[in-house]
Amino acid sequence: MERNAAIVKKPVGVKRKTARYKEFAWEKSIAVLGSISIVILALIFLFLVKDGIPLFRHVGVAEFLFGDTWRPISEPPVFGILPLIAGSIVVTLAAAAMSVPMGVGCAIYIAEIADPRAKEFLKVVVELIAGIPSVVLGFIGVLTLAPFVQEIFDLPTGLTAFTGAVVLAFMAVPTIATISEDAIYSVPREYREASLAMGATRWQTIYKVIIPASSSGILAASLLGVGRVIGETMVVMMVCGNAPVIPNTIFQPVRTMTATIAAEMGETVHGGDHYMALFAVGLALFAISFAINAAASGAARRRGAGA
After folding, report:
1. Comparing C-alpha atoms, which of 241, 251, 184, 171 is closest to residue 211?
2. With a threshold of 0.85, does the pTM exceed it?
């Protein structure tokens, strides 16, 4: 009997050892991939610094960041990126104002209200929207939305910051909705049951319990959506008008930092001031995007600590 017991226990021990080896291999693989990602990010930063920082030998940092004129091919050239920053901020804030309520509302409906069949259908629709190429959305914006905006608001042109913000909001909604839905699902069921047991209605439970409990995850989702908006290139280059001026209203043409890099990089002389200025713009954009993603990561960590 003891010999038979030993025979039975041995395979169990082998399976446990194999499972430990597999777990160790997966942990090391994930650590290696994470390290590679960090190295790649650092190399991108160094690449931007190498070709962007030399510009400041000829142009002051304050003049570059706060100058209100971008004329890189004039004589002498003027490299002030304040209009580009202002255009990026206006488009991003307007898109966030539209996409965050829609994305969070969509997530609440899918997670808390819709029946199972509707949930599956809506998830598929959201994933399909996320997969639409940005250039296709840009074409739609130019051919349909821009003339509509021009006619409705009686504007000289429909290629404005508002038009770009509408298209970008449509692009950001799937990201916000998907991540917010995960955050809402992660709220413990006991919270819902306790709220309903105390006499709260379904809407009161969502508004006063579910949303506050998942607020950190919703904030992280919103910031990631904003990060996608500020890094978008094709849509803003096609539908925002590409005018490097500080806008007085949202219904003016603007140019963003990403559109400037994409539109002008092919026209520059390698190593020239214009070339270095575009890399400096990329460095500023990198810093802004990094700050947004760091804020999103911080919100996610607070959510995990709170849970």
Report:
1. 184
2. no
